[in-house]
Amino acid sequence: MPSTVEITIPNSTLVEGYTKYNITIRLPLRSYVVQKRYSEFASFHDSLSHQVGAQPPVPLPKKSWFSNTNSNERLREERRQGLEKYLQAINNTEDQRWRNTSIWRSFLNLPSQSISVDNSSSTRLHKAITVPGSVGSAPIIDPVLWLDCHRELKTHLHDARLHLTRRDQATSPQKQHESSAHAKSSLTKAGTMILALEGGLKDPGNDAWVGSGLGEGEIRRRKDLLASAKKEKDGLENLHSAMMQKSKLDAAVASIQDKDKLIGSAKPRVGRVLGKETDKTRELDNQGVLQLQKQTMENQDKSVDELMKIITRQRELGVAINNELEIQNELLKLTDEDTERLERKIEIGKKRVGKIS
């Protein structure tokens, strides 16, 4: 069964007098480059053949004893092509014996479970992204693919936020609906990936986690990353729900306005509008009611005038009382002064009596 990994050697690099071949490896969610010398290829070939007990499908390009790839560009290009065919033959063959070895994974820095299409974490991760709710949303237990999935999760959240912003700025119902659908799709994929990531962190004692050498601190950091992503997703879902409710309300208001335009609003009534009738107004016509209103207002004006007179009289009384109080205060001051003079005279008299005795 062919591998899901794509391997190419697009170019080579001269480094300190020897040639390094740049091996580009593309996984379902990420790509990276591994640099290897020809001598490393030769050691890898010998170890792989010894471990499997059979030669790879394509032989390794032979070593040149009379020419150097550093100075011979044609030889360097031929060797690059030969090494690329060598790796691609192992990677694409139906026979998985060479790909299932630890030597192959170590040479290309492949994740520990990136070989089998049906059982690999990369395949499950790819399904979790492309087919939400499928069996591919099983827990992601490979540490490297976990980070890849988290990066993809952040991408989906970013896309959801972008689509919600576009929906808010859209001017037509069709564009609003399209942006809303894209945002909902991104949030659904993000939710599926969160479940897969969360499931992987629930079993940190798995062989993949233990073999990766991740400490408790790194696992806690990943849990914090996941908690932050969940909080962001919940916020975006609440924002999406609020936008949908607002759209429904706007649609309802618009339908009422359209109905009013279609039917036409009621014309205002012309003439006298009767309210609560009294014994005085029940037998009167409009002119009589107007005359009664004028008479009532005149009576109110007279009452206000009478009230004004009373208030004026009260004010005059207040002023008179104030004047009387001022006079009484002056009299009290004079009394206090007389009392003080009398007290001084008494003191003088006591002193004289004391001297005589």
From TrEMBL:
Compartments reported by the entry: Vacuole
A GO molecular-function descriptor: phosphatidylinositol binding
Region listing for Disordered, in residue ranges: 167-186
The entry's keywords: Coiled coil, Vacuole
GO biological process: vacuolar transport; vacuole fusion; vesicle-mediated transport
InterPro entries (UniProt xref): PX_dom, PX_dom_sf, T_SNARE_dom
Cited SUPFAM superfamilies: PX domain (SSF64268), SNARE fusion complex (SSF58038)
Every PX domain range: 1-114
A single Gene Ontology CC term: fungal-type vacuole membrane
Compositional bias ranges of the Basic and acidic residues kind: 167-181
Coiled coil, from the record: 219-246
Top-level taxon of the source organism: Eukaryota
Residue ranges of domain T-SNARE coiled-coil homology in the record: 294-356
Pfam families listed in its UniProt record: PX
Cited function: Essential for proper morphogenesis of the vacuole. May exist as structural reinforcement on the surface of the vacuolar membrane and be required for maintenance against rupture by osmotic pressure.
Name by which UniProt lists this protein: SNARE complex subunit
Organism lineage: Eukaryota, Fungi, Dikarya, Ascomycota, Pezizomycotina
